[in-house]
C-alpha cells in the first residue's frame, strides 16, 4: 500500500470518451460526482477498455512524487481506495446502521437491477445508436464485427443474469417501478429540506443535510438516462418525475456547472449568447431556457 502523504497526488480519470461534459456511463458520472462533492481535482482523459485494469471504464491513474503511477479500475474500488488514502471523505461515516442499510440497498437497486434494465434498452432495443456511440473510435467495417461480438456478449450476460428472460414490456414495467419509488424518496427528501428552511440548494436521497454514497450513484444513473439517445424510454420516464429532474439539476448547478445541461439545444445556446450582448431584457428571458447564461 502506498504511504500517505500531505501532498495530494495527481489523479487522471479515464472516462471512455474524449468529449467534454457528461458521458453515457452512470459509473463515470458516479465517480466524477464523488470527486466533485469533495472538491478533489482531477484530469479527464478518454482511455480505453483495452488498456484498462479489469477491462473496465472508468479507471484512474494516481501519480505520486517518487512513486510509480498506479492504475485502479471499478468505480466502487476507486472510491474505496481514495477514502482509504484520506483523499475523499467517507460519506457514510456518520450514518446509523439503518441508514447505512438503506444506502446500500439503494446502490444495489441501481447498480445490480436498473443497470441491467438500461443495458437491455440500449444494446437490444437501440443497438445501432449504442454501437456507434460506444464503438465510435473503431472504423468501419471492423465496428460492425466488434459490435456484433459486443451485442452477443451483452445479451448472454443479460440472459444469464435474468433480465433478457423477460419481454420488453415487462422490463419497461420493472424500470418504471424503480424510478417511481426513487421519485417518492426524493419528493420526501425535498419536503424535509424545505421544512428545515435550509438555504443549501441540494437535497439528498436519504433526507440528510449531506450526500451519502447513494447520491453519487443515483446522480450517475439519472444523467445516464437523460443524455443517452439509446435510452429514450428511460429518458421519458425520468422526465415524467419532476422531483428527479429537480434533484439532478440542483446537483448539476452546484457541482457540474461547467458541463452542458442535458436536453439543451446548442443552437439555442449560441443564439442566446449572441442576443445577450445586445439586450439585457433578452438575457433575462434566455435564462428561462439556458439558466447558466
SS-based structural class? Answer: mainly alpha
The N- and C-terminal alpha carbons lie at a distance of 46 Å
Assembly type of the chains comes to: single chain
| Order of secondary-structure elements | EHEEEHHHHHHHHHH
Query: How many structural domains does the protein architecture include?
Result: 3
Helix content: 55-70%
What's the CATH class of the largest domain, please? Answer: Mainly Alpha
Shape: globular
Q: What composes the largest sheet?
A: 4 strands, mixed
Return the CATH architecture of the largest domain.
Up-down Bundle
Radius of gyration: 20 Å
Major sheet: order of its strands? Answer: 2-1-3-4
Which fold does the CATH topology of the largest domain refer to? Glutathione S-transferase Yfyf (Class Pi), Chain A, domain 2
Strand content: 5-15%
Rounded mean pLDDT is 88
Strand tally: 4
Count of helical stretches? 11
Poorly predicted tracts of residues: 265-293
Description:
The protein has eleven helices and four strands, in the order βαβββαααααααααα. By secondary structure, the chain is mostly helical. It folds into three domains: 75 residues, Glutaredoxin; 159 residues, Glutathione S-transferase Yfyf (Class Pi), Chain A, domain 2; 31 residues, no CATH class. The protein has a four-stranded mixed sheet, with helices on one face. A hairpin with a 6-residue loop joins β3 and β4. α1 packs parallel to α2, α1 packs across α7 and α3 packs across α4. It starts with 9 loop residues before the first strand and ends in a 7-residue tail after the last helix.
SSE layout:
Blueprint (H helix, E strand, L loop, with lengths): L9 E5 L11 H12 L5 E3 L13 E5 L6 E4 L1 H10 L12 H29 L1 H8 L7 H20 L6 H28 L17 H15 L4 H8 L2 H14 L10 H11 L3 H7 L7
Parallel strand pairs: 1-2
Antiparallel strand pairs: 1-3, 3-4
Helix pairs in contact: 1-2, 1-7, 3-4, 3-5, 3-6, 3-7, 6-8, 6-9, 7-8, 10-11
